[in-house]
Design brief:
Elements lengths: L1 E6 L17 H15 L3 E6 L11 H8 L6 H11 L3 E7 L7 H10 L6 E2 L8 E2 L6 E8 L3 H7 L3 H11 L7 E7 L6 H16 L2
Parallel strand pairs: 1-2, 1-3, 3-6, 6-7
Antiparallel strand pairs: 4-5
Helix pairs in contact: 1-7
Length: 205
């Protein structure tokens, strides 16, 4: 399968080693995910939003083009082509203030464009998914908030935005979420075990 990974962390994809103040558990998850996918023979297409210097802010000109079912940001256009070619999409990012970072939100705003990634046949009617090759979407998140509070007090904001408010709204329902909480407070052995389990998850994708 052609697996597209959208990665969002300021330290970048290379920050997977356990070096204080230069490490990202999201990057470690990315590395583990790539190992699993590679060992299973999948093709990996990585979008590192920070490395690409993606601009998540939609300008007035971009919004006007969006309303006309067009995209004028060359990088967003490239991302759209890569989404269309994907059999599986994986999002990896930390949770900040209970939601995704700005880069990922901007990716959804600018890249998931009407008439290109989805279609709206009539106002108020269900959207139509135009990602015709897509077989599944996985979400890997890292957060400090305990699972119980995030799920039952805050109500899973990230899945409401990315799953219910984006993919399910387009009529796509094969979605999986893997959440990693309080990793900074865990031992190196515990963190390594989670990484190994993640690698095995994507061996059997």
């Amino acid at each position: 399968m052609n697996v597209l990974i959208i990665f969002d962390h300021p330290y970048g994809a290379e920050a997977s080693e356990n070096i204080p103040h230069q490490r990202s558990y999201a990057a470690a998850l990315l590395a583990a995910t790539k190992r699993g996918l590679t060992s299973a023979g999948h093709q990996i297409d990585l979008i590192d939003l920070h490395a690409d210097q993606f601009n998540p802010v939609m300008s007035a000109q971009e919004l006007a083009a969006w309303r006309k079912k067009k995209t004028i940001d060359p990088l967003a256009m490239e991302y759209q082509s890569r989404l269309m070619a994907a059999d599986h999409i994986i999002f990896i990012f930390p949770i900040w203030w209970e939601a995704m970072p700005a880069m990922t939100k901007g990716f959804i705003d600018k890249v998931f464009a009407k008439g290109i990634i989805y279609e709206e046949p009539k106002p108020g009617r269900p959207f139509v998914n135009k990602l015709t090759k897509l077989k599944g979407v996985s979400l890997l998140t890292v957060m400090a908030t305990p699972n119980f509070f995030y799920r039952w007090i805050f109500g899973n904001p990230v899945t409401k935005i990315l799953f219910r408010g984006t993919f399910r709204k387009m009529g796509f329902h094969k979605l999986r979420w893997y959440n990693y909480t309080a990793m900074a407070n865990r031992s190196l052995e515990e963190r390594s075990k989670f990484l190994k389990k993640t690698e095995q998850k994507f061996v059997s994708l």
